[in-house]
Amino acid sequence: MDDKQEAHRPRYEVETYCFSNHDDNSRFAVRRNGVLFHIRVSPSQFVNSPATTQEYLSYLEVLRSGEEVIGDIFDTDVYDWVTRPFEQLFVELAPPPVLPEGRADITITLKDHLYPPFFVFDLCAVDEQLQPHRIETDFSPYFPPRVWLDDDYLDEVEKWTTFYDPADVVLRFGNPEDALFKPPRKVLVNDGKTACFFKPCYSTVQTKNELEAYRKIASSKLDPQLRICRLFGLVTDDNGAVLGLLLTYIDHNGGSLASSVDPHYPSPSTKKGWVDELEAAVAELHRAGIVWGDVKAQNVLVDREDHVWITDFGGGYTEGWVERERAGTVEGDLAGLARLREFVFQDASQDRWWTR
């Protein structure tokens, strides 16, 4: 396909994929214009197609490895192989939305994103030709991320924070069209007056750990200007499940401290400022009886004004940053801070333990 043809391919995003450890089946979720396509792939659906079967198995090996490339096969090659046979169907079944009269763009809510219209397909092959086969069903194979907390616990949480319906949470992107394709990050609540970061909930234990830390932060006398992540509210569904947390939105360039430092960048004075801010913030947390927990460079964001923010109070530990037996303690935080200082002031000749 030449560059001109490539430029005219429809836009869509491969959102998630999964594979079985017991057989060679896999599934892909692809989003276009707010519609979710579930694509199932199984060699059992390949008829008289040994070359296609072998090609698929080589692609599956890349996915299972977790690597971006094995040999000359990239993970993007896998996505392309799976989705190309569906491109005309993407166009037909997920056309651009019709804009309300007088509106330049459409409002997409978190409910729209988490509970989208959907289609289910099998990717089949007959005589080495890939063919989509639609599965008629009223039941989506997709479930949004969520955790279940008992009613008494939620009653206590509701005393100090706000619960939001996903229909009242609006997705916000620099390019409004991206809301139809990409997972939400920045969202608006309170009639658009408050910008938050939406963090989906996957683990009951982690969610409870975070809520306890944010409860302590909310009830403490910490300086409101302290650059730490805070909780604005919970997003819950009609059944009482917690879908996600609404946290401080930090305007940054998309990178954490982990991707903002190397031996030659930024300047020594900027690095010193970052370390000083982190140490001061952690000291304030400890004085309030709050432990950061999972101290690591990936949990520090650098905003557009070159200040650092502490994020992620879900507990746990990361090997190389905090030892398991010290996780969740003041001593663990201090040990992690020492590692952060070493990371920020890394020398080009040092052994990079944090890349292992």
UniProtKB/TrEMBL annotation:
InterPro entries for the chain: Kinase-like_dom_sf (IPR011009), Prot_kinase_dom (IPR000719)
Domain Protein kinase: 143-356
Coiled coil location: none
UniProt xrefs under Pfam families: Pkinase (PF00069)
Record field: transmembrane: none
Source taxon at top rank: Eukaryota
Name assigned to this protein: Protein kinase domain-containing protein
Phylogenetic lineage: Eukaryota, Fungi, Dikarya, Ascomycota, Pezizomycotina
